[in-house]
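To: structure subgroup
Subject: Chain for Friday's discussion

All,

I'm putting the inputs and outputs inline so they're searchable in the archive.
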Amino acid sequence: MVGCSVNKEVYNSNGIKVSPKVTTDNFPSAKLTLLTKDNSVKKGKNNFTFEINSYKLKQQTPEANSNHLANSHKGQHIHFIVNNGPYQAKYVPTFEADFNTNSNIVLAFLSRSFHESVKENGAYVLKQYQFNDEPPYIDIEKDPLLFYSRPKGTYQLDKGDKILLDFYLANTKLSRHGHKVKITLDNHQFIVDKWQPYIIEGLQKGVHEIQIELIDSKGDAISSSFNNSGIRKFNIK
């Protein structure tokens, strides 16, 4: 896991501020295990069953009441992502998922009730399901991968204007002289070199656009099919 420490703001301009979020409720022993056998997964509808250890689904994360972030009243859950699309929040360890394409990259990770990912080594599952004879276009054990998580959906400004920015990495680390994540928020652009959650403040009501990209030390896009989230939209009322 990459720890979350107190750092200076990573962006502050024209009323928009982005700063690292300090995480106080770490779960170093949390573990997510997929029990569904690979050979049972097919194109179409599938049932997935996970085992969770040292972490409780449907429970409110202790920090939830004090951080002024959007929080699920249903509690802690699993973020289930297929082909880097918007995540599905799963509050039970067994659920159905539908695969409509021949190649499917699945990332599942444990999430706090306010949607911050648990970034421990055992707290995620990354799988590839190929339903034809073509070679996989991603090596999930070697290729640097970036998955988008938050912001997502609609936020109520009267409940606080802090918005969580969070993403998930596989097969790479961020550093000052290595890989980084470039973030474009509306017409604001900035770069982060630590894998940790961030807080966005100062956005006005309306629809906003955000895009995250995995880049190398020279600022060029990493050569990987999952190095760019594409443009995601979220709304503030």
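Points worth raising on Friday:
The two ends are 34 Å apart (CA to CA).
The longest strand covers residues 44-53.

D.
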